Amino acid sequence: MSVKIKKGQRLKTDIIKYLYYKGTLSLTDLSKLTQKSLPLVTATVNSLITEKYVIEKGLAPSSGGRRPLMFLLNPAKEKYIVSVAMDQLITRLVVYNLANEVVMPLQLLSLNISEDEQAISKLVSFINGCIQRSGFDKQFLIGVGIGMPGLVNGEKGINNSYLPTPNGTSVGDFLMKELALPVFIDNDSSLITLAELHFGEAVGMRDVLVVNVGWGTGLGIIINGKLYRGSTGYAGEFSHIPLSKSNNLCSCGKRGCLEVDTSLLVMVEKAKSALAAGAQSSMKKLFKDKSKHPCDHFLDAVVQQDPLAISILSVACFQLGKGLSTLIHILNPECIVLSGRGARGGKMLLPAIQQAINEFCIPRIAEQTTISLSTLVDNAELLAAASLVVEHCQFE
């Protein structure tokens, strides 16, 4: 949900935002990025130093001329961000400082948001409980950023798919009241895409597709260096294009969706069916361990190059590659980033995807697109949920 920023605070907020994303910058860098005069930027940075938001980093490496003084956000500043990453089954939370350092380690909540009628209340209790355990006074918390699945309109704070509220208000308004903090929400795949754009494989790129491989199969689209949301904010519902030959019903209520072939949940069910039919695999033992979700065990088996896990993954990835072939023809991206929980499968994801692209794409177009694996993996949504707060809040 948007927050109006006072005119006098705009430059201060913009400088904090650029330092948050870029790490270290000179006064000249900040002047170019904000399109403000160097004297004005210098005065504002000096003010931020006085307020302990910004500290000096030292001189930049020598490039032949005078070395400029560099600045970065102060990790000791008592300003913190609560970051929440939700999927259909598990909710994760960390607290960051302004330097993107974790100051409260990962907290987990098993929460089935599609079936639990008390999901929104449990979410509130979880977040409030974590804040209380963190020991941070709420006056030092800038806000709460939340990534969640579904048809999410972040500007209005609405999730049209999950988390109905008891009083019928929007999710954003309800959480803001219950948490007594600024709350900003967005779609999980959109946030993962923003994380790759600002911190990951898509940094400096203009036209990129980011695939969120998880319980479903999400997509974020970067066009001209910005996240493309479509006319009503719902662009990127990649998993619901009708490419599956299966008659299985998708979570959206339709048949033939790509998701019924490519989600981690489907892969786990295929693995369990194969084991029940007598197949041998390390997953037989792994699935007995109830301390982790079966999808995480499946990915562990993939990383360990278990033959059954890899064969199931390959079938799913071929279908994923078939869908990506269509998008390559339409959007001609310079890069496709495989991100999200499933990216932990690493290089095991690539052969079948590349095979499908080779089979279905026009070579002259396909050869212009590279396929990259995210290095952020599980951290992507958490990082971007925190950046939601930085993007929308006013720094005073």
Number of strands: 15
SSE string: HEHHEEEEEHEEEHEHEEEHHHHHEHHEH
Q: Describe the largest sheet.
A: 5 strands, mixed
Any idea what the radius of gyration is?
Answer: 22 Å
- Residue-averaged pLDDT, rounded? 92
| Shape estimate | globular
CATH C-level name of the largest domain: Alpha Beta
Quickly give the CATH architecture of the largest domain: 2-Layer Sandwich
- CATH third-tier fold name of the largest domain: Nucleotidyltransferase, domain 5
N-to-C span: 19 Å
Tell me what the structure shows.
The protein is α/β, with parallel strands linked by helices and 396 residues long. It folds into 3 domains: 67 residues, Orthogonal Bundle (Arc Repressor Mutant, subunit A), CATH 1.10.10; 124 residues, Nucleotidyltransferase, domain 5; 173 residues, Nucleotidyltransferase, domain 5 (2-Layer Sandwich). It has 14 helices and 15 strands. Strands 6-5-4-7-10 form a 5-stranded mixed β-sheet, with helices on both faces. The longest helix is centred in the last third of the chain and has 25 residues. The model has no long low-confidence stretch (mean pLDDT 92).
